[in-house]
Amino acid sequence: MSRPSTQAVPPLQDKDVKINIVGAGVFGLSTAIHLAQRGYKRVTIFDKQPYHESRYSYFNGCDAASADMNKIFRSAYGGQTEYQSLSIEAFEAWNQWNAEIASGEVPPGMTKDDKVFVNNGNLSLTDKPSLPPFELATVRNMHEAGFPDSQLITYDPSHVKIATERGLGFAIDPFDRQKRGQEYLGVLDTTGGTTLADKACFFALYKAERLGVRTVFGPTLGAFESFLRADGEIVGIRTLDGKSHYSGRTIIACGGWTPTLLPELDSVCETTAGSVAIMKLPTDLARRYSAKNFPSWMYKMRDGAEGGLYGFPATSEGYMKIGYRGTKYTNPKVQKDGRERSVPVTRYTEAEQIVDQIPTQALAVIKQFIADFLPDLPANGVNIDMTRLCWYTDSWDNHFVIDHVPEHKNVLVASAGSGHAFKYLPNIGAWVADVLEGKGLDRQLIRSWQWRTRPDQEDRIINELMQGSAGRRSLKKTELSTPRHLKLRQTANL
Ligand SMILES: Cc1cc2nc3c(=O)[nH]c(=O)nc-3n(C[C@H](O)[C@H](O)[C@H](O)COP(=O)(O)OP(=O)(O)OC[C@H]3O[C@@H](n4cnc5c(N)ncnc54)[C@H](O)[C@@H]3O)c2cc1C
Question: Which residues form a coiled coil (predicted)?
Fold first, then answer.
């Protein structure tokens, strides 16, 4: 395959080369593990978060997309069979990680009874009278890939039987809609389920360190400040403590912070906020909605601002999380170069007033869903306890960006998870390592992840970029929630 001239980079071969990875989220962790497994001896991960202490917990000050209670795993990718295959590869790897944990290979604070992936199914529901084309394509494509009974249609009695035989009967109508005389049409992905994200990242960090990866973490020690340059090349990074860290290759994997660190990405991706509501359930409801009885789910996922909902079983601590991505918001700020760029703002961002309130529009959709699908929550006095803005890095076409930065052959960017990369924590690093080593570059996914600029043809664009403060999705233009909005009895009457 011919690669753009800016990316004609000599493949990585020298196992002694120093490699700096900036960012210890999904992309950084996975890359570190796979490089170390391939024999690279001098890999260091930098992060501004003190992850050894905070253990990737949102409650302990972590605000990366990867640092979360849970994320959905699914193989269901409609017509995008290349991501379906990547998920099938990841499914094996998640089960392998669970097996390693069960054998006692765990960091302090985890036990062999912990799991990082629960195969409790992922249910995709619609409010339409028939299944949307995406779901039908998934059923067909998983069948053709050799998984004939993995996608089960909720209204098909023979599929309900299969789900029951597999111990996933609860996941066909987990909201008890039928009992209330309501519709529950959807597809249950039986390969799907729930990843325990914070625990999985902490386990990945442990794996990386066991393989010899070094870490430099902390708000000054580990924070990227600038690139080091010599003779026009980038030769490492400087951290906020003023230290220089020279390297042969630098990998930038800073999630939502990546576009501000690499403004070259302006026409490729942008950071946007998803809205999340967290409820602490009383013990009986937490048991009712635990992963033993309840799948991860999605509702009207591709139906615009009134849809884009997803959620999870209650955690072992009783927290239930519901997310909304029907509208993804931006936080445009003027940068040093005079351009406006969206930057993450979270509960933990210094010098910001926001405490992770979410837009009332997002909250209204979430509350309407709870009123329609989870009426026992408000009936039992449950309210929303906490909200969170969680930052995506969206490319214009929803594909990741895994490629060398034009004009900087020593720098590779691994980012633009576009709302779906967590599930690839155990395996995406192998693909990043392949790009670095120049292997299999003609594979469809690797081609999709190449550096690319936003095209002129509007019909190819999935996510609009860089609309700035004039754009309708700017947080500045959006009404944000107050504690009064978090009461569930008010349903959607905001
Ligand atoms: C709301 C939401 C829901 C999602 N749901 C799912 C899902 O259900 N299933 C799924 O598969 N995927 C999901 N995703 C996508 C997935 O979470 C992301 O694709 C993935 O976590 C991104 O990982 P990352 O490594 O790119 O970024 P991040 O996880 O954001 O990590 C970036 C790291 O870089 C560090 N960093 C930033 N700036 C600096 C600096 N200057 N110096 C040093 N370190 C720095 C940060 O501290 C952080 O640790 C979701 C994403 C969001 C936002």
Answer: none
